[in-house]
Every structure is written in structure tokens, then in C-alpha cells.
Amino acid sequence: MSGPVTMALGPFLFRAHGFGYTDVSRKLDTTWAEIETAGRMNALQWTGPRSEVVTINGVLFPAEWGGESTLGGVRLAAKNGLPLMLANRSGQIFGMQAIQGVEDDKAFMNRLGQAGRISYSIKVRQIGSGFSLLSLLGII
């Protein structure tokens, strides 16, 4: 038994056992333009969000729980530039994501050269929606 699905990146399901994860971090980058003013401190004007990056870290134990083929599928999707939807079990949808990178570290090799433990990191970045409230209003 692999346990309940806790998060999904497109067709790749993260579970309690098998293809699971240990932690998720999010980084939102927003920009503020500095506007020079006379006689006082420069003003700041918010110009909008620039990017949001989610990093998913995990550890696989392929001999006991599997998951190595799923990590290979994520790597293949990244190589082919396939955008994927990211969502978690609580129903929060993070939108379409571009896989920015996949790293893995294999350890505890057996006599056949297979890893007993694989730690990995997947970095995804949200793809812009193509429109915003400002574009709908004709401002940009």
C-alpha cells in the first residue's frame, strides 16, 4: 500500500510511501519600482509579481517503496518542456508549472548498482496566466 495522495504534479502523484516528499518551499518574488521625487524620500510603486517558485524535496527508498520510475517521468517531462498543474490534497491549486530543474542524489548502492536511497529536489515555476486585471482594463 502506498498511502493517500498528498500532492500532484500533473499525472505524477506524491504519496506517503513510494514517490513521496519530505518538504515543500515556496518563494514569491514581487517588484517595486523606485520613483525619484524632489524634496523627500523616493517613492515605491508596486509593479506586480515577478515569479513564484516551488521546491519539492523528497527521499525515495526504491527497493522498499518504489518511486524511482515516477521520478524518471518527472525528469522526462522536464526535458520535453511539458507544463504541469500543481495541486495539493487540501484542494489548493497552484496553477500550471514549468519544471525548472530536477536533481537527485543516489546512495547506498547494492551489488547490482541500484540505489537504496535517492534524495531528490524538483524546482517548478508558475507559468504566467497571460492576462491580469490590468490587461483586462486595457492598461497594459
UniProtKB/TrEMBL annotation:
InterPro entries: Myoviridae_GpU. This is Phage tail protein. It comes from marine sediment metagenome.
